[in-house]
Amino acid sequence: MKLATRAIHVGQGADPATGAIIVPIYQTSTFTQDAVGVHKGFEYSRSGNPTRTALEVCIASLDGGSDALAYASGLAAETGVLSLLRPGDHVVAGSDLYGGTVRLLRSVFEPLGISTTFVDGTDPDAYAAAMTQRTRLVWIETPSNPLLEITDIRSLADVAHARQALLAVDNTFATPALQLPISLGADIVVYSTTKYMGGHSDVVGGAVVLNDHELAEQLRFHQNATGSIAGPFDAWLTLRGLKTLELRMARHSTNAAALASFVASAHSVDTVYYPGLAGHPGGAVAVTQMRSPGGMVSIRLSGGEAAAHRFIGALQVFSLAESLGGVESLVCYPARMTHASLSADERERRGISGGLVRLSVGIEDVEDLMEDLARGVEAARHA
User: Global pTM?
Assistant: First the structure.
């Protein structure tokens, strides 16, 4: 079956008790047993719940993995992956990452003895040079947040595996509708399902996909021990979102491509970051590993922070908000929002400052979105 069909059917057979075509929300904390240790596959909802299982089976199928785990949030999913490491272990990660991921690596895991070296995320040689005998994990986002950098997944898989390290790919921006990291050699795929996979800005969740049962069992033990699970209603909402994932991603992508081209010619815009634009440094790699460049666009306004605020203030369709990937279009100022946990100096070094604005392009009518951005870039001219 193709992805769109699997998203609707895999793990989602009719309810055997009633024939309901939609997986029920098993809103229960526990399950009765016929005798001690004799049950119908579920004992306690922290350890397993039928609605969550349906979601996990579906996500694993979409990504081409053997196993998937659904978590309470994207950062909970990342924490699950990092639980595979031990004091003294080392991570090599791309430098352009979601601010919450950087905070997790530095402020939570570094004090526990797990160090991270950040490198140019687009250069496989930089990862190789940074690896040591203690490197156990290579971590990348592609496309990255917020500069939309592209990393060659297949090349990085070769680099990681040559040193017996695992490659983890945060595939949140692309989703399995646009990119399949496991097929390119990744060991672990991570999602904030809050974003495109849920798709409607009404649920918070995360997921990890693997193609190794032993690793999956290690993560399941940690997840059960810490309780970082997706609840049944959250799992149900995410499962509902997956049914239209391919359709939505196609519209997000076509809208984003049109808007990226539109703002690229604006006088108040210095740079447009979008892998689908001619001249994007990672465009050639993106074509080899993505079905389309996705729905995220970042722009750098020539008037700096003042221009960014004027741009945002003039928008009427795009809403100023954290997060991304919903059906509605959102605008964010990363330096004060998604990446505020980084120091000012680090934001400056990474290019997350000044006039940088991130757009999550929704599925509204593209002409309405163009008119809205026209208001924004015109206002930015007068900063």
Answer: 0.96
